[in-house]
Amino acid sequence: MCLGAMIHARISKVVFGAYDEKTGVCGSCQDLSNGDCFNHTIEVEGGILADECKDLLQQFFKQRRYKPQIKTIFKK
């Protein structure tokens, strides 16, 4: 879905750090960015500071999982 939005927006280049090994389509489990089925191609450069980016993502989701949920009660 993100790749489709980038193609329609005619983005010429995307640079990212961490590959998405489960659902990524720019060189991870698939590589649709180089496909000839689209009317626009995007230059993709991935893996920039990959270890640092992976650590940041893991830390973010770990904090998100263990953050206490705030419960509110709405009265009518």
Automatic annotation (TrEMBL):
Signal peptide: none annotated. Keywords: Hydrolase. Its EC number is 3.5.4.-. GO terms for biological process: tRNA wobble adenosine to inosine editing. One of its GO terms (molecular function) is tRNA-specific adenosine-34 deaminase activity. It is an enzyme of class 3 (hydrolase). The keyword Secreted does not apply. InterPro entries: Cytidine_deaminase-like. This is tRNA-specific adenosine-34 deaminase.
